[in-house]
Structures are given as structure tokens and as C-alpha cells.
Amino acid sequence: MSTLRVGLVGYGGAGRGIHARLVEQAGYDVTVVVTRSPERADTARSDWQGVEVVDDLDSLLSDTSRYDLVVLASPTPLHEDQAVQVLEAGVPLLLDKPIALDGPGAERVARTARETGTPLTVFQNRRWDPEQLTLQAVLAAGSLGSVYRFERRWERWRPVPQQRWKEQDTRGGGLLLDLGTHLVDSAVQLFGPVESVYAELANHTTPTEDDVFLSLRHAAGDDGQQVVSHLWGGSVVGAPGPRTRVLGSEGAYVVTTFENDASPFEEMDAEAPDGSQGWLSHGRERTPVQQAPGGHEDFYPAVAAWVLDGGPVPVDPEETVATARVLDAARESAATGTRISLG
Q: For the chain, which ranges sit under pLDDT 70?
């Protein structure tokens, strides 16, 4: 497999902080960066020897011989139109989540990829989280019996919001599009399509949502069991709940912390042996679970295999269209106070 060359649009928190870091970890190269910021341009030149910095997407697409893949890490409101432009140019595209602001926009992006035959995938990187990979292994082993509820919380204590578009932009910011996209994707990956949605959305400290709750009813599985997912995202949570809790007929799987979040479960966490990820719990009895192999560092090698060697698409864009429709239903539910069927 040859070295993947990336044309990266945006060099801020997502572009440099996430994508460029993962590209470097994989041993690949960022050859072109799109940014209008002189400071970020200087940073890109310092980070990547010989990188070319251009001002806009048109300049990037004017010569597609310089890269194998475009990565769009621009603000969410720009995703739909920029993605369509890249796809119509026939360049393989990795689009940061969410795919678009809403379901119709997401379908437009996916339809453009289909009609042009241009490869498209979406950066649902949280599928590669250790807790997600480990939970998949727990479910595959049947350790929980018949599962009936999945809970996941992405909660933090930030009573003074940051002055950035993700928290201040009423069109493209807010936790529903940010964390909600990951939460719904994780639930669907584990438990299948969503039949109906109930949601509560609020904003306590920002112009857009900083408090999100979703209840998803999944289609019944082969055993006839219907899983319900309860998903939370919050910025003003002084006592975060357990990150993940899955309840089944033969026990539960619990993850109390994630990354660097503050946790009220420090004593319990301190008991966890190295190399474990969460607990199998039966009342007062709990057993540490061996962490499954893999992580975010596996994402870009999968992208390279897809772009350069005809491997499987890392994330099917049609799955992200379905997620966008769930988020649309969540907005409708929160506005009407009713559960919305997805038909």
C-alpha cells in the first residue's frame, strides 16, 4: 500500500487537532492545506515539510494531482455545499461529521456521490472508541443475555461556554449535531435501525442546545427483543453519570469514565486493572472486562486501504444519512412533545 496523500480543508481544532494528528500517526502525509488564517498557515508549514497552503476550496480542486483524498474538516454549516463541490470534481472524500445540517442535506451529499461515482465516507471515528469496540465484543459473546436498554452519556461541567462556533452558532452548533451525531451512530451500529424517537432539548448557557436527551426505539432483533437507547449530551452537568450502561437479562456492562472527563466514580475506576475497559455487573458483583484491541489509530489505515487498494468503505455514507434523519426527528419531537415515528 502506497502512502496516502491528504488535501486537508480546515486547520483548526478538527483539522489539525484530530485529522492531521491521525494522519501523522499512520505515517501518511498532508500535502495541501486550505486555510485563510495566516497563523494556521504558518502552523501547517511548520507541521508538514513541503506542504502547500491555499486560500479556498477552488484552489485545492484546481490541481487534484497533489493528493489522493480530500478531508473536509470545516465548520458544519459548510459541509453540504463543500462536499457536493468535491464530489462533483470526482475526488475521493472523507467528510467530518455530521454529513450535513439535516436529512435532506445529507441525502443530497450521498446522492451526489452515487450519481458521480465518487468515493465518499464520513468521519464517525467514535466507532473506534475502546468502549465501543469492547462493548461490541461483550455483545458478541452473549455475556448480557437479551439486551433491552442501552445508555450512553457524554456529559461535562462547563458552566461558562467557550466562544467558538460549536457553542455559539445557532445554525450549525449545539450538542445535538455535535455529540448527538456520535451518540446516535453508536446506538445504531450496536442495535440497528431506529423506529421512533423522543427527545428533549434545552439551552442553559448557549444560544443553541447544551442539554440533549434522546430516547430511540430500535427495530426488534431476531429474538423479538426491542432495544431502547437512552442518550444524553450535556455541558452543564456537575455530576456526570456513567459513560455507558447496557442492561440485559443476564447482567449489565458499565463504563464509568471516558478519556479525560471528570468522574464521580474515581474509587471504582481506581480498582480497574490495567488493560480493562468497563465492568460486567451483577448487582454487587462486578468483573473487569478485557479491553478489545483497536482504537482511533486504525481509522486512517482503513481509509488508505479504501482509497488506494479498493478496500471496504470505513463508514457507509448511507448510514450517516439515517443518523441525520434521526436527528431531524429529535428536533420535531422536542418541538411537539411527542414521539416521532420514522416509518
A: 1, 258-267
